[in-house]
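Handout, page 2. Input:
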Amino acid sequence: MQPFPEDEAYGAYDPEPVERFWRALLQVHRVFTGFRARFIGKVSPVHFFWGAFDLAVTRFSGRTAPKHPGGIPNCADWVAEEAYSHEVSSAGFWPGAGLGEAAFYAYAYPEPDDFRKYAVGPEAAYYHEALGEFILPYEAVRMADEPDTVLLEFLQRTYEAAADLAKWDRHGLERR
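Output:
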């Protein structure tokens, strides 16, 4: 592997798909920010992970979590232990890596009993056993008559799955 200034193997740049991705990120950021604002407990900013190239937002219950077992690809175990030191409900958007299509995801750590069986919406959402996360294909949101409503339903229902099953203090954590 060469230092970045000397790496000429990947020099192609097609502005059209880059601009489409940027525009998608702007819309997702807007909806995630609205979802984030509904929570008065500790919540991360909407943030972009360069390593996985995903946009994410995480809500915290305020309670400590069991030590994370680690084993996340390309992530030192101590990083996972620190990142998941407290219970979380997290959601994000991937441009397609790993699934073959762009998708929204949501997970809880630790995952409460029956989380994967929880009835979430919208209809296109499903639990991906191998990933251990709920998935909503980007196309289901993009093609919807009301994309914001579809995405917010996914975010809210997956959060409710985590918060209800883990018995979070929703009254103390949510804006009424």
